[in-house]
């Protein structure tokens, strides 16, 4: 007799999929196993996988998918703090014993049919035999995670001896640009002092500087000692001396718990490089020292090679914090920033297209060295001059790091961002693999990873925190589609294999030998989630199951890729045309356009607000807001190319709800600091006036603004007191954010309200200069309506 075990609403996935099929690669519950009960406190800190699809009911075939006009795919946040329903995985051990399908290599899961000797794969239907050890284990299913939950997290055995496993000390290196200002260095010092407080005992920390020379600091002695290696000024020459020869790596990397005060003392000795020192460098044989002398590229390449010598021995992952005050202009990887000042219009060149690609492959190439050396790079650029982040971004996005951009030192949140980044859990050496049932397959994948050179749909992620989100879109494998008669449902299985560093306090005494006490331990884990989706039998069911935030995520990924390849204008055109086609398909599906004498009626009868389908109603506003976002605004509107690149990198890793906030900010009102008036307003002056509320709270993800109306009662406390409801809301938002939002308090009629008014986009012309007009969103809808009428003729 066959037994089919019921499961939660979710399912499982795989890690490295050996011999997986080749395919198109896009160029751009609650039950803990007895084994892990003693690690309960530690495992509660491990993160959970969140998955959201554009539609919860999949189209039945390719014709239905095309007729809907909607992108079809999903987003996954593999190391998220909770899943989309707040459900956790079933934890266990012996992940290497989990049965795999002989055909598609999917993992056994609760949706598989199981008999005494064999099981049917829920993805491809293949009958697989069960090994004898699995038969014995599955005789008591209630104690086995994969038998009780479709969402599991299993420990894997580590290769190597226990001594090698415990040599997992986290390594952090700060590389500071001293070809900079006093203000920049003070900000970098503040950030690193905050970082030292966030680092766990047992961590190793190294301090380096760069300008026309690289400085390596030894802080393990009574006083800090720095050794300098001069950088050749030209773009071809390498360093005359390996960093290891100048200072052994283990002399450079200092234990944080014993050297924290000395590290702080070394930071206090940092001074900007002076013109006299640059002249002295020239006197030592460097004949053509350039003004600026920011040898960033040479320094990064040398540091990656330096650290790589101990990868897998002293550390399993090293993080480099690169503090940059301007463009690299010296040595290897120097960039020509004059292209920003060129008059593109006179050359009939699209500036938005010319400034988005990288001008040199150097930084992409050394990002590969970083990956091979086990190094994750976080770039903190504090500058308002053109730095060409289009070239530099690869250091962070390909190594699993983050890119931060601050326009000035005055109101920078860099110290808070660094503390926040280091204070949250992260996984490293991750492998992400998505499999589907046979009727459909992944088409494209999006996010900060690098694809496996051999296996399809296998992504490597060097470092992954609880916010990092990835996206996939789907296509049908053939014209057959899914069964229309209640057969097998679509299945998606996501596997995430990752490593975490477990501090000594995360293990029980019985799990540690005497020699490993006080040391960090590596733990390799496999998280699998298998999800069943329903199918829609008509277009109404597709539209009723839409998640507009996930649709926005897929759209943003697509327009970023188009912008990088073909320019911002092409990205805008793609977005506009998509909304026109969707609106036309919707009007056809609901038969809202009447025919007169064989011709369709005028555009005035077209429903451009999706009034028949509440799930689609937010989409026109989101598309309008995306077109007004600096991500897609024109160069001539004053959008700095580095800021555009920063937004591309930020938006590419946000979960759907956070991205929604970044594209169309949340605006709510308060009658007093302790009483909310309305939870949501449209971003228009009319909404503010008609609400009659005195206080407004705007959350634009990177910026939070509290705005007091000019007509607000003067007796209302300004700024809001610390113990009021509004402050509690602000603190909650800040606590849950991946970055530290800039907080502003503005009093209408007294302070400059431009920063707040710029977010009231619905009265701004979508193609214009952003000035308020009677046009804006209403005019945009009229344009869409006319375009739909032309499309439907």
Automatic annotation (TrEMBL):
One example of a Gene Ontology biological process annotation: intracellular protein transport
Entry's Gene Ontology cellular component terms: COPII vesicle coat; endoplasmic reticulum exit site
Residue ranges of every copy of the Sec23/Sec24 helical domain listed in the record: 547-659
Keywords from the named record: Protein transport, Transport
Nucleotidyltransferase in keyword set: no
Family membership: Belongs to the SEC23/SEC24 family. SEC24 subfamily.
Organism lineage: Eukaryota, Viridiplantae, Streptophyta, Embryophyta, Tracheophyta
InterPro entries, per the entry: Sec23/24_helical_dom, Sec23/24_helical_dom_sf, Sec23/24_trunk_dom, SEC23_SEC24_subfamily, vWFA_dom_sf, Znf_Sec23_Sec24, Znf_Sec23_Sec24_sf
Annotated Zinc finger Sec23/Sec24-type domain residues: 99-132
Domain of life: Eukaryota
Pfam families noted in UniProt: Sec23_helical (PF04815), Sec23_trunk (PF04811), zf-Sec23_Sec24 (PF04810)
Molecular function terms, GO-annotated: SNARE binding; zinc ion binding
Domain Sec23/Sec24 trunk per the UniProt entry, residue ranges: 169-421
The name this protein goes by in its record: Sec23/Sec24 trunk domain-containing protein
Entry keyword annotation includes Protein transport: yes
Native source organism of the sequence: Eutrema salsugineum
């Amino acid at each position: 007799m066959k037994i089919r075990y019921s499961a939660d609403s979710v399912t499982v996935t795989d890690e490295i999929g050996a011999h997986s099929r080749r395919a198109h690669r896009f160029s751009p519950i609650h039950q803990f196993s007895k084994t892990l009960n003693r690690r309960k406190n530690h495992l509660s800190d491990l993160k959970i996988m969140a998955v959201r699809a554009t539609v919860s009911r999949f189209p039945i075939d390719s014709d239905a998918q095309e007729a809907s006009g909607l992108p079809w795919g999903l987003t996954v946040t593999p190391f998220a703090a909770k899943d989309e329903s707040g459900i956790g995985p079933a934890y266990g051990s012996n992940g290497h014993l989990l049965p795999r399908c002989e055909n598609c290599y999917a993992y056994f899961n609760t949706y598989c049919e199981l008999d005494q000797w064999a099981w049917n794969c829920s993805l491809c239907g293949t009958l697989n035999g069960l090994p004898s050890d699995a038969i014995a284990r599955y005789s008591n299913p209630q104690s086995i995670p994969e038998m009780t939950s479709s969402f599991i997290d299993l420990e894997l055995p580590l290769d190597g001896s226990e001594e090698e496993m415990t040599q997992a000390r986290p390594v952090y290196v700060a590389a500071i640009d001293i070809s900079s200002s006093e203000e920049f260095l003070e900000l970098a010092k503040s950030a690193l002092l905050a970082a030292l407080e966030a680092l766990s005992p047992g961590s190793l920390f190294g301090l380096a500087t760069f300008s026309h020379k690289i400085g390596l600091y030894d802080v393990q002695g009574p006083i800090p000692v720095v050794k300098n290696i001069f950088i050749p000024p030209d773009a071809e020459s390498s360093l005359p001396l390996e960093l290891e020869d100048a200072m052994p790596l283990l002399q450079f990397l200092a234990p944080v718990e014993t050297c924290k005060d000395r590290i702080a003392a070394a930071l206090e000795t940092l001074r900007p490089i002076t013109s006299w020192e640059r002249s002295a460098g020239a006197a030592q044989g460097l004949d053509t020292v350039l003004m600026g002398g920011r040898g960033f590229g040479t320094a990064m390449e040398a540091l990656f090679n330096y650290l790589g010598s101990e990868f897998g021995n002293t550390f399993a992952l090293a993080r480099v914090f690169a503090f940059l005050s301007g463009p690299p202009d010296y040595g290897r990887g120097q960039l020509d920033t004059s292209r920003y000042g060129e008059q593109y219009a006179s050359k009939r060149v699209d500036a938005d297209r010319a400034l988005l690609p990288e001008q040199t492959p150097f930084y992409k190439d050394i990002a590969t060295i970083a990956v091979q050396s086990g190094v994750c790079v976080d770039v903190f650029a504090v500058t308002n001059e053109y730095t060409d982040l289009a070239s530099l971004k690869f250091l962070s996005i390909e190594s699993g790091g983050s890119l931060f951009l601050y326009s000035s030192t005055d109101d920078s949140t860099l110290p808070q961002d660094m503390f926040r980044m280091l204070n949250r859990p992260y996984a490293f050496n991750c492998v992400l693999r998505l499999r589907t049932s046979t009727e459909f397959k992944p088409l494209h994948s999006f996010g900060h990873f690098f694809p496996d050179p051999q296996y399809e749909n296998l992504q490597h992620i060097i470092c992954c925190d609880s916010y990092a989100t990835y996206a996939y879109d789907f296509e049908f494998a053939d014209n057959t589609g899914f069964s229309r008669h209640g057969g097998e449902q679509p299945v998606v299985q996501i596997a995430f294999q990752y490593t975490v560093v477990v501090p000594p306090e995360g293990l029980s005494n019985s799990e540690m030998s005497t020699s490993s006490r006080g040391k960090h331990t590596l733990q390799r884990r496999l998280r699998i989630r298998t999800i069943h989706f329903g199918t829609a039998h008509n277009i109404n069911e597709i539209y009723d199951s839409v998640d507009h935030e996930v649709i926005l995520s897929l759209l943003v990924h697509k327009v970023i890729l188009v912008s990088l390849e073909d320019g911002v204008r092409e990205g805008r055109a793609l977005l506009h045309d998509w909304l026109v086609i969707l609106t036309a398909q919707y009007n056809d599906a609901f038969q809202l356009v009447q025919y007169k004498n064989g011709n369709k009626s005028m555009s005035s009868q077209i429903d451009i607000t999706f009034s028949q389908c509440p799930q689609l109603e937010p989409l026109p506003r989101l598309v309008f807001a995306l077109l007004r976002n600096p991500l897609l605004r024109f160069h001539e509107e004053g959008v700095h190319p580095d800021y555009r690149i920063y937004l591309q990198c930020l938006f590419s890793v946000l979960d759907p709800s956070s991205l929604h906030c970044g594209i169309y900010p949340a605006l709510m009102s308060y009658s007093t600091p302790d009483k909310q008036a309305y939870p949501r307003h449209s971003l228009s002056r009319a909404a503010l006036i008609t609400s009659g509320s005195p206080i407004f709270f705007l959350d634009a993800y990177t910026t939070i603004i509290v705005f007091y109306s000019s007509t607000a009662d003067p007796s209302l406390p300004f700024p809001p007191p610390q113990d009021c409801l509004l402050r509690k809301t602000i603190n909650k938002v800040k606590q849950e954010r991946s970055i530290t939002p800039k907080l502003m308090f503005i009093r209408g009629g007294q302070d400059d309200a431009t920063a707040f008014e710029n977010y009231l986009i619905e009265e701004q012309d979508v193609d214009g200069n952003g000035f308020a007009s009677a046009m804006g969103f209403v005019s945009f809808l009229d344009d869409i309506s006319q375009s739909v009428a032309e499309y439907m003729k």
